[in-house]
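== Fold encoding ==
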Amino acid sequence: MLTLQKYTYGPISMLVVPGSWIVTKVESGLTFVGQRLWAVRTDNRSVEELSNRVKQLEDTLAVSQQTEKELRERLKVLDPRTHPGILIGDRLAANITGRNPGVGTNLINIDKGGNDGVRGLPELMPVIANSCIVGRVSVAYPMTASVLLLTDTHSAVRAKIVKRADRSVVVETCLVEGAGNGQLICKSVEKSAIKAQVSGGGGVDVGDLVELVDSEWPVQLRNFMIGVVAERPRSGDNPYRYSIWIKPSVNVTELQSVDVLVRW
């Protein structure tokens, strides 16, 4: 608690905070400019009142400091571009320096590598952008790395399908595979697994969200966006299963930078 000291200036006495600047204007009362707090005349307020006021100010300051601390903790999380649960130190920003030519590119190169903590096999560090899954680091060189996109035919990940409006689950889990040419497909959705009763019985519709639920990926990335349903499910030759085409959430041809999850 701050200590008040008595200060006397001619016939006037006052309580002040040590280290404060004092300016007096005698003809119209007193004016005080405090470097830390304020000073007041003792004949206007009792010592007890002043002590209580100082205590109130200290309590207010403590609350403000706690609020600031909480806000700073929140700022450690990847902001609206990213996702709660991922701290700033958990990810590494990287610029895209190259990609396979054409809209169907399934591989990109980034300007961060092993010297920066990026790892490929066996860790296969995840690569994200704007709360969306981009792919995984396949090979890390000292200064650069290659990222295999989800759309590559060697990629596969488990996901769920939810309604955009109310996030009700339509398909609890399906295997989303890279189909090449910048596309994704889920080929093994059993018709009986589609919850047609949600959202008025619509089943799987164009625009439904596809989100990560794969237990082999870091838990911080759960519910990250993979893509959106691009067209109504097709039965094909199998009367019991649907194939669902999915448009990736990230347009890699326009993407300039990504984040590599280096710790989880």
